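Support case: user asked for a sample of complex input and structure output to validate their parser. Sending the pair below.
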Amino acid sequence: AQKITQTQPGMFVQEKEAVTLDCTYDTSDQSYGLFWYKQPSSGEMIFLIYQGSYDEQNATEGRYSLNFQKARKSANLVISASQLGDSAMYFCAMREASNSGAGSYQLTFGKGTKLSVIP
Amino acid sequence: GAVVSQHPSRVICKSGTSVKIECRSLDFQATTMFWYRQFPKQSLMLMATSNEGSKATYEQGVEKDKFLINHASLTLSTLTVTSAHPEDSSFYICSASLYEQYFGPGTRLTVT
């Protein structure tokens, strides 16, 4: 079973409107972290927002907010007031304990959602 | 802070040759670095985890003799694609970790 599921291969949103990108996850760990990254056509991975499994409040970073529903195992990204520059691929990722034994954590990525902002 | 660089950003090589990609953490020391591969319109797939001074841990299906990883210092890890073939053409991204992962800008490899 996939650990991170992004069911929307592509999304369109009108400029200045809000958009929600879906992400569900699967883990048996009690402690985990959820991330959203933006990848423009240049390829760089831009960190947007982080939610820890024990965080009681939804994370927010400027126009980005994370709708964390732990019981449903979902971590949807909400982008408010979309801008043309928001057009990019968006990846949801989960951090679990690594098998490297070094205390660092692996990230598992979803397949991504391509967001297109329409002027 | 937390800047990670990769060099080169783009490389074209002939089939059968080897290519080395460098990943550097510029303003912090990273005990762990990760190497990912991303094919067009696909997600990032973890190839290997490397810890300074020890052998890398490769993910299932990744050939360790083909993708040589060296993590000689706390600020530098290298990935060498040996005897490259066209199917190795991909976007390779590294990340360096203190606790969080900070990503490099990626290297686009094209094997002709």
